[in-house]
Recover the amino acids of this structure.
């Protein structure tokens, strides 16, 4: 959900989604698909994939949902240090994984994701404006 919303907020950036240990190739949870489709966002094409060293090295910014994920990723890929942050860092919160949860849980998590997307898209746009260059990932 986060990647598709961040891509909408930052259309000039390349936004990719990858998990630490996802069920590679799996579709998005049907509850997430339904929730976002009500808002005109199509998540049906999403397929899970795993993050790897190449993705980390190419990224300017890596957003994770939980502090433990940041720590794990930075421990595994030295290139992640200094550019990996929680999506809801601005409110010092981890975003719980709603996978397999209720529709209500997905709605709560979507609200948190929207907050994080708003905060990060604003920050990225500020940095783009300050540097005079275009962000690419």
């Amino acid at each position: 959900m986060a990647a598709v919303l961040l891509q909408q907020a930052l259309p000039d950036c390349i936004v990719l989604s990858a998990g630490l240990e996802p069920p590679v190739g799996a579709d998005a949870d049907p509850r997430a698909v339904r929730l976002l489709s009500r808002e005109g966002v199509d998540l049906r094409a999403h397929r899970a994939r795993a993050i790897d060293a190449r993705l980390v090295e190419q990224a300017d910014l890596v957003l994770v949902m939980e502090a433990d994920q940041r720590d794990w990723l930075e421990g595994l890929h030295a290139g992640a240090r200094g550019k990996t942050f929680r999506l809801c860092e601005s409110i010092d919160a981890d975003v719980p994984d709603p996978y397999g949860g209720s529709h209500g849980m997905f709605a709560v998590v979507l609200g948190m994701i929207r907050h994080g997307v708003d905060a990060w898209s604003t920050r990225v746009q500020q940095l783009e404006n300050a540097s005079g260059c275009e962000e690419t990932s």
Observations:
- The longest strand covers residues 62-64.
- The two ends are 17 Å apart (CA to CA).
- The chain has a mean pLDDT of 93.
